[in-house]
Queue: 2 jobs
Job 1
Amino acid sequence: MKIAIWWIRRDLRLDDNHALHAAMRWSDQVLPLYIIDPALTGSAYTSDRRLGFLLGGLALLQSDLATRASRLVIRHGTPFAVLGQIVEELRVCAPAATIRIYAETDYSPYAKARDQAIAATYPLHLVSSPAILPPGAVVKDDGSAYTVFTPYSRRWKATFRAEAVKPLPAPVILSTPAFPESDTLPASAPPPGPEFPPGERAAARRLAAFTEGAEAPIARYATDRDRPDLNGTSQLSPYLRFGMLSPRRAALAAYRAEAEAADEPARRGAQVWLDELIWRDFYITILDRFPHVRGGSFRPEYDKIRWANDQAAFAAWCEGRTGYPFVDAAMRQLRAIGWMHNRARMVVASFLVKDLLIDWRWGERWFMQHLLDGDPAANNGGWQWAAGTGTDAAPYFRIFNPVSQGQKFDPTGDYVRRWVPELSAVPPKQIHAPWQLSAADQRRVRCIIGQDYPHPIIDHQFARVRALEVYKQAFA
DNA sequence: CTGCACTTAAA
DNA sequence: TTAAGTGCA
């Protein structure tokens, strides 16, 4: 008798699940297990809303398993202790059984240390990865890791063989031991809003809606993706974060959309979206190979930047009252729905780091505390890119102008009006710089600057020069 | 070594 | 068009 524990971590799905598949192939019975780890739920990088999304996904997985004659075991505790208990309980119920643990490999420093300690004591088998191509699969000719995205993506595309990828179907039935028992699933965290229903079914629907058919948004992705007012992105990031969607399925959908594209812009759209999936692999690889990025700059010399770190300015940024409408809209969107458009992420990050001279780690932590898709690899990579401290970084002298970014990517101001209602009567021409309205115009649109909406927290032209000085000093 | 290219912005 | 910079083939 062989019993496999399928230890679920960030692969909350039955479809195309390599860890589950390996567990089934080896064993006679599979015990699906999710461990609610206090080190993760109690961390300063946790979001209650993300926890709610996770719990919603677990509830759906529970019912999906029930329809397959199986069940989900939930346990609270440190993974090492819980796995020890489960193994012990299985040995009592099935003394003759051989037991193994199967899980998908994970690459954050915490996950690697955790798994290494467990593997030293228990038969832990790690398979596959949350990336499409795992760390180590895409390397330079000399075997070293890429630190620039474009050559990485070229090699990635030469390595990935879409025609050879055969997603694994979800099991129809899963034989599961009747013991040990499960804790009840907690309901303490706020459930996600209607924008992001959890679960692999919702993820599959969203992937299909984004990629399938002649009218699919992916066909316009190359241009619409930069427009937060148009919602031209897939909004699949929370599902990829928890593995409610197989990243291989996503990549295959991109290849298929490219093959079936009706015209050149549509083909381009599919290629650009695939690149976004490759960015995800890239940052997973960077965090694996350069784990020091978790606490500091990829380039150590950038740790010498003398941040202003003004608490009041940070609070204004967090709460969306910087006086720059595009920045404020984005920050309010984040708090309202636990997600922010990618173009907006770049702009608010540049504003925090370059205009307010606040340590990028503060922004990184705030994002982790609010994003449904908050992921240590992608979030860290994005922040270091924006701060100019990372791999493949934007040179530090490239500083986003929050007004021209708004005018360019939210030309009618729809995005600003949606999230900053006090500006709703400001004409499109002035909506990204409302302080330029005359006093009479401010009265007419019922938005007095300094009263109904804040003055700009800092003058961008001044801040730009200051940031260049401070960055230059760090290298002197 | 040398040229090319860079999730590119601003002027 | 430039570039306060640099990885990669």
Job 2
Amino acid sequence: MAVGKKNYQNTILDIAEALKLSPATISRALNNHPYVKEKTRNDVVEMAAKLGYRRNLMASGLRSNRTHTIGLIIPRVSMFFHAEVITTIQNDLHKHGYSLIICQSNDSVSMERELAETLYSSRVDALIAACTLQTVDFSHFDKFVEHGNPVIFYDRVPVEDYKATLIKGDDFKGAYLATSHLIAAGCKRIAHISGPLTSNLYQDRAAGFLKAMEEHQLPVNPDWVFHQELTQGNALFAMQKMFTTGAGPDGLFADNDTSAIAAIEYAKEKGIIVPDALKVAGYSNDPRTAIITPAITSVEQFPSLVGRRIVETVVELLSNDAEGPTYKIEPVMIPVELIVRKSTSTN
Amino acid sequence: MAVGKKNYQNTILDIAEALKLSPATISRALNNHPYVKEKTRNDVVEMAAKLGYRRNLMASGLRSNRTHTIGLIIPRVSMFFHAEVITTIQNDLHKHGYSLIICQSNDSVSMERELAETLYSSRVDALIAACTLQTVDFSHFDKFVEHGNPVIFYDRVPVEDYKATLIKGDDFKGAYLATSHLIAAGCKRIAHISGPLTSNLYQDRAAGFLKAMEEHQLPVNPDWVFHQELTQGNALFAMQKMFTTGAGPDGLFADNDTSAIAAIEYAKEKGIIVPDALKVAGYSNDPRTAIITPAITSVEQFPSLVGRRIVETVVELLSNDAEGPTYKIEPVMIPVELIVRKSTSTN
DNA sequence: TTGTACGCGTTATCAT
DNA sequence: ATGATAACGCGTACAA
């Protein structure tokens, strides 16, 4: 008796009963299994629609060990770069029949650990992660690797060896391009507002900066190199430090656009003319850089390309039924491009 | 024999075996069931940690009909307002032990339908949705309602009655405040760049705009009221239309900041001085409005408050084990506030 | 306080 | 091409 049956939902058994078929046949018909008569399949699909049947992913996943769900851990969705990456990832995954669980770590290592646990409990088929700037221990991802689930790191990736796929931007080149551009524009005393060296991103950008400086035999003033969290407040603080004693820099390369914007605003307030007295370049090509006056030169990271590569990789690794490797040995490199704007103009 | 057992994972049976207990006891210990000896519970927790046990959410969900997962459908994560709302929702839900599946509809109705299907297949405990601007038929959410799963709409909500909770900003008031402010600043010929009237948002904002105009007995020029998708391109087109024939408006209220920014840029290019010759107000208080020159007056929507209320509501509705209603009859209203900046200054 | 036994909805295996 | 049956891992009513 179905009387009083709360939360009633139709299952393949209901379809089977209505069609006088066995549940196995229903399952096969719904999963495009080859050995199903054309008419039977049509009947099943029709009846499923009629009964409003929706596959229960928990039951299916429990049995088949595949959830068709991918986990994603990122610092914040509100950062422009990440927002763009996510959008592409989700759209592309959707085309391949995968869902995406997006989780924010808020740049907290402990949160990142918890989220990894939760996603493992959800038995996602694969995990995509842009780690915290402070993440140096990656053991919370071990379970996925051990269990044969692909792990893809992008943007902020492990520096040491790890059995996972790495997808990264060419941070060295980005920093090198930006710095070289400042030099070509006539800057001689260039400052660098950079992030913490725990992250590969800022290690590489620092190296790119230094390479460009060296190549042109320009001295690097240690008081003008900052390794700090890239917030507006910290950037203002750095500017203050550089411009309150003696002659400040005539060029600034900032490792993110938030810092570059803060620098521009500091300069405006103090009457330092950009680009005449100070040229500024940022990183990420955040939409804000095009809107502020003067518009800021910045490094484009092609987030949607990053997203596309990630999905390509995930799909490829997951289709390796033949027990192929669960990761790619060579990191995937995404190109960068310098977008030149008014903040570094020579007029 | 465990030999050759690929994808081996520890289950409560492994813990039971290791401890010479029954699986039932393990389950109880792990779920904080009252009738478990303190020592037993400790032993279980310890062994679980030792074996690296992680609950299989599919199995537990299948059995208990609760996934501790909430679904979220939004147009785009990259819109500032939504990004902020999401962040709060996820953080707050996490505190209550819920995970969040975030899906983007890309403002496409058919995608929204598909995502609703997928989330239903995942048997999320509740669904949060900010609908597409074109969504007028909400039947794809019916299954959740019928099944007793709370549905919470925010921002873009159904206009007609629907057995779901509504959480909305005070759009009427926001538009009224912005328009009144323009009038108080001396504007007599005010234009309105608005969104499609299929959405409650723009209906309410249009009404707020008209109310303010009426109250001050200002005429509304129908050629200066635009109902269109709120893109940069459309805004530029509207500006062009208004300023190429005769005297243009001296005030503009735009229903989003992207349009307001585009208007400012058009004005800059054409030598129309803002705020002297044209005053502009936007909507959402996007960070870009504070950065552009001149900074733009805009309506703050308190996205984190929206997020907080959403989670409060979800948690409350889900804890209604006692067969309470699955929705709130009264919509929850989130206040708005006008942030005044240079673009409407009277200096 | 703990154990036994069953079922959640689906899919894989074997049989027909 | 289809059916019967077992199993995935867990939670719970009932028994002990």
